[in-house]
Amino acid sequence: MPAPITQLDKSAVLDGLFSVWDDIDTLVDGLPESSWQAPSPLPGWDVKALVSHIIGTESFLAGIAPPQPDIDVKELPHVRNDIGALNECWVRALAAEPGTAVLEKFREVTKSRRQVLADMSDEDWNAVTATPAGMDAYGRFMRIRAFDCWMHEQDIRLGLQRPSSDNDLEGPALPLVLDEISSSLGFVVGKLAKAPDGSRVLFELTGPLSGSIRVAVDGRAKVVDDFGGAEPTATIRLDGLQFTRLVGGRPLCPKRAQDVELAGDRELAQRIVDRLNFVI
């Protein structure tokens, strides 16, 4: 049976996505060229590459063909798939540009995309299309864009040694980020970690991204609102930002708590933590 189509409020998703673009703009505005070249947590990419990647994705969505790379980008050690190769076309094309020019391109493409998305009809917003998570509504694709851009904002912050403060972690993008992560946790718990039937897994997130996410395995693993009064069989407790870092296969933020506390079935809990990296 095909997965249900995700119906999302357009204004909430766009508010979150646009706020992340605004935050990235503020972060890199006025940077010296040396800071644009600061290495990021992602292998092979500096701060400029992260912004170039966002430019490339939004350009692709605007129907702009990628530039031809000067080398076979698939041979680069940090390129692992076709999406990575496509990303690298833009990264390499903009690598020689000064940071000010890259920021101007970022502003140009995001301004254009803001207008297109704001003008999009509800019918087009809910239309089924190919997304990184399979066939789903275009609105789901834009929630994925908010998640991806927010993750890269955190990468830029770490590259600049300006990790998010508690205040930085507040805003309209955060519910979208956590909802997007939650949508894949059934897959992580059931398929990747192979939690046995009857498992009840509780993710307890602390800090500014505090909250609880529950996954129950009853034939299949899925996110649930509660366990019907039953206690979790495995609990994973950690800082919410660090949780997003693990999900993205990134190094932990050095300025936040590093501890990952496990309770209940600790073997299962550790297996889940080891398989949290599901991002392409």
* Adjacency order of strands in the biggest sheet: 5-4-3-6-7
Tally the helices: 10
Q: Beta-sheet strand percentage?
A: 5-15%
Radius of gyration: 19 Å
- Tell me what the CATH architecture of the largest domain is: Up-down Bundle
Number of strands: 7
Counting copies of identical and different chains, the oligomeric state is: single chain
Please summarize the sheet with the most strands. Answer: 5 strands, mixed
**Within the CATH hierarchy, at the fold level, what is the topology of the largest domain?**
Four Helix Bundle (Hemerythrin (Met), subunit A)
What is the helical fraction, as a range of percent?
Answer: 40-55%
Tell me the structural class: alpha+beta
**Which stretches of 5+ consecutive residues score pLDDT under 50?**
none
Please, how many domains?
Answer: 2
Using the alpha-carbon principal axes, give the shape.
globular
H and E order: HHHHHHEEHHEEEEHEH
Relevant CATH superfamily of the largest domain = dinb family like domain
Averaged pLDDT, please?
92
Separation of the first and last Cα atoms: 24 Å
Pfam families: MDMPI_C, MDMPI_N
InterPro entries: DinB/YfiT-like (IPR034660), Maleyloyr_isom (IPR017517), MDMPI_C-term_domain (IPR010872), MDMPI_metal-binding (IPR024344)
Protein name: Maleylpyruvate isomerase family mycothiol-dependent enzyme
Domain Mycothiol-dependent maleylpyruvate isomerase metal-binding: 20-157
